């Protein structure tokens, strides 16, 4: 057995060096040369402060902001605790949560008509989903405009500017980047004031 | 689902089949020891690895010595992965100052990664240091996949050789698979993923100031958000390509930093099935039966495509919990799904990751509709042979092919043969071991877990769905898949140990049986095909093979599925 264990140990040691040290370090080196910003988490800065990652969703509760998917963690959108609700399709707790989310959205904007977009009442898989559907964004436009004293058309144009189509017209779904919209809304509000 | 969604699914299948052909030819070259192109660059590295390990790649062995090397290599891997987790607090490469991993978690994780299962009873970002992720987990992502490939290569030699004792050198097979197949593919995919936004850095987590602070657990506003980072891309690419599936982050490939865009999702999903599909054609070339290799691939596709359509259609409808007067009646089931992937991208992943023994997720399987969750579970229970794990999926499928020709042989009263080798009592005994061992772990494990308090305590959802969580866990572990109905609190000593044992049995019993098959087949003469021979290709064979896979799976698992997803669906549609 010793004649087998020794080569096994030695081979694991050299393959550890190759796949556990050389490979990740070479990838890190090449990545920071080719895509330095993305390799470091796609961080976004405003006025010299890092205010988020482009890819990681944040919790928004203020009516002046576009809201994202319902949260699964406390605090909401905790970057250290990714994951979904794991509630099953016929779990009564999920039906209760959906009803509460519908009620909260209706209460925040009693004038809104039409069905509530389903992505606003269901938790994402990661708890950090940075996007909502275009329907979910447009559903909130009137509330945001009212809270900010801004024309609805201006809110809608910000939303459009941060809407991505399907990749190659085929892959994934059209989506609105929530943090991007909210940073742009803050900037637009500042412009409106200075004008 | 939209036309674009269905088109995405069709494009996926087309891209998979297109890539399988050239890669299959390449794989055959690698395992036959012929020049493959990359050896001109990496040949010196290969020879240096042999020298450092003190092994002679030209010294081939019989199946028993091959199996001993396989087991020794895996045992050493287990010890190292366990030790690194327990010692991580004392080692460098731990910028977020994580403590030592608990013994039962470390035990489970070590078995999980060595057996190519990558079941995770922990959350990566808050449990494993960067050093552990790189030196223990990333390494096993490579070498556990290379081990599975090696066993398949030995089995292929069993078919191609005549009256021979040797089935190859395990050391050479592991080195060549790692160096010429897994490393180059992973490196290229990792860089593409970084380009899409997956982090690749040794810096610790970033702290950012959020725009709209929300109250934390103690009610005070939390102004800071942690952006978890690390050497993510290099691990994600191999966890997809090696059918490992263990995520860098807890949410796996649903995490927007692990899988940021629809394109990264498509490529990661393609990476799941790429090697298992190509291996069919590579195997065909190695055994001198290209048509037979294609037949194995077609059988997998024939089983995969309809199940994919069922999952996609099932997820495109609202679940009972989403039936609310203010929510559109045609709303899709987006609970546990990411907006960027939508129904099509999520359904594709659910089907691919359970068909292969990958186990990574881009949506939460616990929140799937009963039909989709049931299909996912059934695909795992078929024994991970519809694509399956790299190497392990195909040796499982070859075993089912032996069962198929055996059944056909019984019908005409004649000794069956496959790929020119007579299939006799010993071969059928080994085939039965491969088919039956996961059955035992899945059904017995589930029965024990739901009968004792420690097993029931982990269940999150009420009713039949709670039973599904336990059944899914043992199906996943016993077939080395690694995905979960994640509501189950599996990070307990009971589940860590029980599922650890299931993973162990699910890996080594079939692998050793496959090696014994290789040894026995290699010693046989090649018999020319006669008028009574059932050809190992053509529509008749593909249909027979699919029927055997489905029948064995259905007869074994239907009663258990009836208690979980079937009854849940019946209750939901009342």
The count of β-strands of chain B is 4
Q: How would you sum up the global shape of chain A?
A: extended
Please report the number of helical segments of chain A: 6
SSE order of chain A: HHEEHEHHEEH
Biggest beta sheet summary of chain A: 3 strands, antiparallel
**How much helical structure, as a percent, in the residues of chain A?**
40-55%
Number of domains of chain B: 1
Number of domains of chain A: 2
* Major β-sheet strand ordering of chain B: 1-2
Overall pLDDT score of chain A:
94
Structural class of chain A: mainly alpha
**In terms of quaternary structure, what is this?**
heterodimer
Largest sheet properties of chain B: 2 strands, antiparallel
Distance between the termini of chain A: 82 Å
Give, in order, the helices and strands of chain B. Answer: HHHHHHHEEHHHHHHEEHHHHH
- What order do the strands of the largest sheet of chain A run in, or round the barrel if closed? 3-5-4
Spell out the blueprint of helices and strands.
The complex is a heterodimer of chains A (195) and B (574).
Chain A: H1 2-34, H2 36-39, E1 43-46, E2 49-53, H3 92-108, E3 131-132, H4 134-148, H5 152-161, E4 163-164, E5 175-177, H6 178-194
Antiparallel strand pairs in A: 1-2, 3-5, 4-5
Helix pairs in contact in A: 4-5
Chain B: H1 3-31, H2 39-53, H3 63-87, H4 103-114, H5 124-127, H6 130-160, H7 170-196, E1 206-215, E2 221-227, H8 232-241, H9 262-286, H10 290-315, H11 342-355, H12 370-381, H13 392-412, E3 417-418, E4 421-422, H14 425-451, H15 453-456, H16 464-478, H17 493-523, H18 538-572
Antiparallel strand pairs in B: 1-2, 3-4
Helix pairs in contact in B: 1-9, 1-11, 2-7, 3-4, 3-6, 3-17, 4-17, 6-7, 6-8, 6-17, 7-8, 7-9, 8-9, 9-10, 9-11, 10-11, 10-12, 10-18, 11-12, 12-16, 12-18, 13-14, 13-17, 13-18, 14-16, 14-17, 16-17, 16-18
């Amino acid at each position: 057995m010793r004649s087998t264990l020794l080569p096994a140990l030695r081979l694991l040691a050299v393959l550890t060096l190759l796949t556990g040290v050389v490979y990740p370090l070479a990838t890190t080196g090449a990545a920071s040369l080719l895509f330095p910003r993305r390799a470091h988490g796609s961080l976004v800065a405003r006025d010299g402060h890092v205010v988020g990652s482009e890819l990681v969703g944040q919790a928004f509760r203020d009516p002046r902001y576009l809201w994202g998917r319902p949260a699964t963690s406390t605090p909401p959108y905790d970057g250290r605790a990714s994951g979904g609700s794991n509630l099953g399709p016929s779990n009564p707790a999920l039906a209760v949560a959906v009803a509460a989310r519908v009620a909260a959205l209706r209460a925040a904007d009693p004038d809104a008509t039409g069905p509530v977009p389903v992505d606003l009442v269901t938790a994402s898989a990661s708890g950090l989903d940075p996007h909502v559907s275009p329907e979910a964004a447009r559903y909130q436009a009137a509330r945001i405009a009212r809270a900010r004293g801004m024309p609805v058309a201006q809110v809608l144009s910000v939303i459009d500017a941060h809407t991505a189509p399907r990749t190659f017209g085929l892959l994934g779904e059209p989506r609105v980047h929530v943090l991007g919209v909210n940073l742009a809304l803050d900037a637009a509000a500042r412009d409106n004031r200075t004008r | 689902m939209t036309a674009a969604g269905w088109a995405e699914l069709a494009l996926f299948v087309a891209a998979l089949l297109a890539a399988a052909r050239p890669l299959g030819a390449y794989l055959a070259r690698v395992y036959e020891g012929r020049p493959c192109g990359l050896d001109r660059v990496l040949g010196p590295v290969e020879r240096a690895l042999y020298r450092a390990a003190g092994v002679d790649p030209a010294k081939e062995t019989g199946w028993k010595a091959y199996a001993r090397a396989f087991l020794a290599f895996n045992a050493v891997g287990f010890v190292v992965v366990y030790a690194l987790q327990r010692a991580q607090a004392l080692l460098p490469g731990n910028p977020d100052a994580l403590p030592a991993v608990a013994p039962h978690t470390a035990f489970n994780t070590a078995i999980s990664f060595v057996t190519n299962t990558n079941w995770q009873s922990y959350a990566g970002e808050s449990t494993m240091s960067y050093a552990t992720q790189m030196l223990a987990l990333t390494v096993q992502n490579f070498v556990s996949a290379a081990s599975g490939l090696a066993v398949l290569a030995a089995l292929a030699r069993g078919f191609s050789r005549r009256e021979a004792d040797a089935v190859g050198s395990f050391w050479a097979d592991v080195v060549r698979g790692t160096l010429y197949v897994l490393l180059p593919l992973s490196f290229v995919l990792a860089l593409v993923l970084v380009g899409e936004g997956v982090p690749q850095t040794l810096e610790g987590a970033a702290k950012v100031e959020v725009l709209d602070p929300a109250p934390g657990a103690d009610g005070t506003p939390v102004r800071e958000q942690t952006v978890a980072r690390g050497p993510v891309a290099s691990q994600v690419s191999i966890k997809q390509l090696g059918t490992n599936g263990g995520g860098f982050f807890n949410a796996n490939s649903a995490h927007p930093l692990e899988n940021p865009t629809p394109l990264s999702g498509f490529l990661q999903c393609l990476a799941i099935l790429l090697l298992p599909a190509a291996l069919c054609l590579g195997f065909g070339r190695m055994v001198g039966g290209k048509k037979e290799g294609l037949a194995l691939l077609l059988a997998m596709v024939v089983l995969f495509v309809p199940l994919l359509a069922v999952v996609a259609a099932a997820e495109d409808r609202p679940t009972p919990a989403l039936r609310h007067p203010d929510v559109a009646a045609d709303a899709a089931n987006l609970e546990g799904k990411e907006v960027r992937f939508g129904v099509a991208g999520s359904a594709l992943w659910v089907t691919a990751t359970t068909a292969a023994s990958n186990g990574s997720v881009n949506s939460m399987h616990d929140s799937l509709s009963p039909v989709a969750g049931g299909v996912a579970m059934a695909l795992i229970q078929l024994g991970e042979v519809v694509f399956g794990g790299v190497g392990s999926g195909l040796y499982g499928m070859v075993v089912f092919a032996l069962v198929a020709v055996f059944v056909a042989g019984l019908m005409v009263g004649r000794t069956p043969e496959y790929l020119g080798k007579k299939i006799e009592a010993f071969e059928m005994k080994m085939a039965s071991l491969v088919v039956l061992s996961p059955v035992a772990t899945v059904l017995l494990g589930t029965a024990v877990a739901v009968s004792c308090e420690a097993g029931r305590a982990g269940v999150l959802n009420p009713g039949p769905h709670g039973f599904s969580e336990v059944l899914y866990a043992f199906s996943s572990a016993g077939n080395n898949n690694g995905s979960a109905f994640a509501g189950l609190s599996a990070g307990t000593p009971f589940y860590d140990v029980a599922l650890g044992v299931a993973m162990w049995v699910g890996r080594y019993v079939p692998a050793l049986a496959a090696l014994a098959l290789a040894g026995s087949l290699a010693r046989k003469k090649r018999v020319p095909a006669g008028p009574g021979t059932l050809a190992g290709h053509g529509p008749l064979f593909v249909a027979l093979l699919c029927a055997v896979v489905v029948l064995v799976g259905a007869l074994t698992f239907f009663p258990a599925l009836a208690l979980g997803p079937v009854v849940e669906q019946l209750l939901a549609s009342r």
